[in-house]
Amino acid sequence: MKAYLYRIRFVASVIAVTVLPILVTGAVLLRAAEQALLEEKKQKLIAVTEQLDYVLSKDFDAVLRERGMLTAPREQQIEALNRALAPLTDRLAAAHPGVGVGYYAAGLDAIVTYGPSEETGRYVGEPIPPDHPGRRVLRDGVIEVAVGQQVRGNIMNAMLPLIRDGRIIGYAWANELMSSIDVQLAGMRRSIYAILGIGCVVAAAASGLLMHRLETILAEIKAGLRRLRFDLSFRMKRLDGEPGEISDAINKLASDLQASRSHTETIVQSMDSGIVALDHCGRITAWNGAAARMTGLAVEQAVGQTYTDIFAEEEVLVAALTDALHHGRTVRDAEWRPARSGQGAQVVNVTTSIWRSPAGEMLGAIALLDDRTEWKRMEAKLAQAKRLAVVGELAASIAHEVRNPLTSIKAFAQILEEEWPPGHDNREYTGIIVEEVERLNRFADELLLFARPNEERHVPSSVCDVLDQTLALVEPGMAKQGISVQKSYAASLPAVLASPELLKQVFLNILINAQQAMPNGGSLRVEAEGDEREARIHVTNDGPPIAEEHLLSVFEPFFTTKPAGTGLGLAISQRIVQAFGGQISAGNVPGGVRFTVMLPGTDRKEEENEKTGAAGG
User: Strand 167-177 to strand 522-530: parallel, antiparallel, or no bridges (unpaired)?
Assistant: First the structure.
């Protein structure tokens, strides 16, 4: 049940990590698109009003004067202006379908023309209401775009003041019904919703495939570990990709454990003291030759049996083991005279201890048996017993770890690391296991995460020196692969303010990426150029070009086209370069692919710091 709930939580977490960013991004894009559409409509309507202002080369009085209507009644003046200006507004309305345009005369306080005339001509002669936005335009002389219920209905209305000889004679307007704009917005929303839906489905499907692959890998690893609990000779089959390193590490660990177990068993069997180890159920799990001699029972007779059956007649030993196993009480130097001794052991010293896991859980009990018949050698025996106690604890701990359920590879490796002295070869293996287990934990828990660049001390660094140091690491492998390396450094390159180690990591990621792009050999060109303000490093390989749709994604975390890749190398490189104030880019060039790293020189950095300091002051 716990595993099922964990799987549900894991699936939900993966989906949330992949789908929620898409939804949030979609919501932001939708809002931005809506604002952009409304802004585009606004600018379009303003442009139409400017056209209206331009085509009206005279003021309204001049138009009336030309027609001899300057002193005519108001209604006749409105009619005369409508006849003169309606063709203009109708042409503009025809050029912009769905847009209503017209003029408003301040002196007549009336609409003098409203195109298209066949649809909106009925409004000619009407004044605007007192709260109409056009009143503010007439008063303040500024352009205004208003959305709401106006003369034509619910519209977006752009109004431009008509200024002639320094006075406002009226205004020109262009408007569009919000219902038309809403139709366009609805179509745009449907398109964005469809794209978001497809993106979410693809993300969910990719998450499902990823989870299935992880479950398959984890299931194989768990099955292998369960098998190794009982059979250290078992070897897991090699998994594909990076998990193959884990399976190899587990097999290496099993091999080391098997060798260590054999070594430990040899030590235990060579001890003069008897070792008896019990699990939490009282079954004997360890039994050496000394114990067999003292008790008269061979290993095959004892291992796997319960101690109460084997030592039914030995009250002292049964009591000591019972106290340790069931009551947590240990005994030291208890005398036991075996009723069924082997080769003359008459008096046996019994010392018990509790067998516990690293978490403090009781796993069983251990009894150490010492032959105490030669009292004259008591001092030597006591000194030897101390040494044997240490070896016994070591042997018991190793035996405990061999038989204890391997609940955590990492914990097991750390325990083994504590058992081996500094400089022991096996410490390297445990380090590998810890590293690989941590990598699997990071990969399974959050599909991912790339780190921020380490906050190391930045110092003036030579780009050429760092490039040479990095090339020295990869050139031998490239030479074996048939890749020739050509270097070209400009004579004068500025020093850059950076961490040499992190900068080396950037170049190493780019060079390894180039090497992987040329599995059958090729040519690699490393060029460095620049001036006193900037250094530019170009790494060009003649491998296959990057697909156009992937060019913008190569620096995204977890994007990779390689079956065994994690997609973090170039993403981390970008983060490091950005931390240095530079940029990194990738592009296809004739005959290959080029990565370019641009880093500011120390002079430019100092200028930027001075500007920042001056602005702050």
Answer: unpaired
Domain at 39-182, CATH homologous superfamily: PAS domain (3.30.450.20)
459-609: CATH class: alpha beta
Sign for the CA dihedral angle at 126, 129, 132, 137 comes to positive
Assigned token pair, 209: 């495939």
Return the H-helix or E-strand segment holding 180.
helix 178-230
Quick one: the chain helix, strand, coil %, rounded to 5?
55, 20, 25
DSSP assignment, residue 167? E
Query: How many whole angstroms separate alpha carbon 305 and alpha carbon 297?
Result: 12
Average pLDDT over residues 399-408: 41
The domains of the chain are located at 39-182, 243-434, 459-609
Asked if 264 and 395 count as a contact pair (C-beta separation under 8 A), the reply is yes
Distance CA 232, CA 120 (A): 92
pLDDT number for residue 135: 92
Which has the closest alpha carbon to 353: 363, 361, 370, 365? 365
Other beta carbons within 10 Å of 127: 13
pLDDT at 398 over 50: no
Which secondary-structure segment (H or E) carries 460? Answer: strand 459-461
Alpha-carbon Rg for the chain, nearest whole angstrom, is: 43
Two tokens at 429?
């293996």
Report the interhelical angle of 378-403 vs 243-270 (nearest 10°): 150
Residue reference for tokens 């004579």: 491
Question: pLDDT value at position 309?
Answer: 80
pLDDT at 521 over 50: yes
Half-sphere exposure of residue 212, counting CA atoms within 13 Å on the CB side?
A: 6
Q: Which of 208, 177, 193, 200 is nearest to 10 (CA)?
A: 208
C-alpha to C-alpha distance for 605 and 581, rounded to whole angstroms: 8
Report the first-to-last Cα separation within the chain, whole angstroms.
63
Helix residue ranges per DSSP H, 333-448: 378-403, 409-419, 425-445
pLDDT, tens digit, 9 for 90 and up, residues 324-373: 888 878 888 777 777 765 444 468 778 888 887 777 778 788 888 777 76
Strands ordered across the beta sheet of 274-279 = 284-287, 274-279, 362-371, 348-356, 334-336
Write out the CATH class of domain 243-434.
alpha beta
CB 124 within 8 A of CB 82: yes
63 token code pair = 């138009």
Nearest to 392 by CA among 501, 268, 300: 268
Instruction: Report residue 460 as tokens.
Output: 């003036």
Q: Which residues does 44 contact at the CB level (< 8 Å), separation at least 6?
A: 96, 99
User: Quick check: helix, strand or coil at residue 400?
Assistant: helix
Determine the length of the chain: 617
Q: Quick check: 546 and 531 in contact, CB under 8 A?
A: no
- Residue 371 is predicted with a pLDDT of 78
- Give dist(CA 284, CA 270) in Å, integer: 19
Fold agreement between 39-182 and 459-609: no
**Peptide bond before 116: cis, by omega within 30 degrees of 0?**
yes
CB 392 within 8 A of CB 272: no
